[in-house]
Design brief:
This protein is α+β, with helices and mostly antiparallel strands. Helix content is 21%, strand content 45%. The protein has a nine-stranded antiparallel β-sheet. The two termini are 23 Å apart.
């Protein structure tokens, strides 16, 4: 994984606990997600169904973050979430703005600072529903920017459980 890919993963992983509990379920099928980090767009595809989307949200919300603040505001076009969470003993603040529809396309902008980040970082995710998953895809399959295919559900099952978490979480 490239350095920008690692930064992207870290930012999204740290911001998601504050967001996962409030995120609507996305429409089942194939989603294309373009992530913009420091002017470096990365595009991937993700095949999901309702159960897979829920499992991914549960994984994010049980990540071990302790959030002292989670302010969710519904807007005419989506929602905003402001949070303060402690992860691995470090405090991180996040401001998340979501606009669009989880049935067709949405944009999520995450601005985070603190924790392990040396300076505030902003990432933007643009998600677009492409249609049904391809015949050779199953829910949880992700096609990474380099063409590598992996299944997020299989990866979650292979991870050792965190203390107090159900197996696979």
């Amino acid at each position: 994984m490239s350095r920008s890919g690692a930064v992207l993963f870290l930012l999204v992983a740290l911001a998601m606990p504050a967001f996962a509990a409030e995120m609507p379920t996305r429409k089942a099928g194939l989603w294309e997600i373009t992530t913009h980090v420091a002017n470096h767009p990365m595009k991937m595809q993700q095949c999901i169904d309702a159960a897979t989307d829920q499992a991914m949200q549960s994984q994010a919300s049980s990540s071990g973050a302790n959030c002292s603040k989670r302010d969710v505001q519904k807007t005419a076009t989506g929602m905003t979430i402001d949070s303060v969470c402690t992860i691995a003993g470090k405090t991180m603040t996040s401001h998340i703005v979501v606009n669009g529809s989880f049935d067709s396309n949405y944009t999520m902008t995450i601005t985070s600072e603190g924790g392990v980040l040396p300076a505030p970082r902003t990432i933007t995710l643009e998600a677009k529903w492409l249609g049904p998953c391809a015949a050779d895809q199953k829910p949880g399959d992700m096609i990474m920017p380099n063409g590598m295919k992996m299944n997020i559900l299989n990866m979650q099952k292979a991870m050792p459980p965190r203390p107090g978490a159900p197996p696979g979480h």
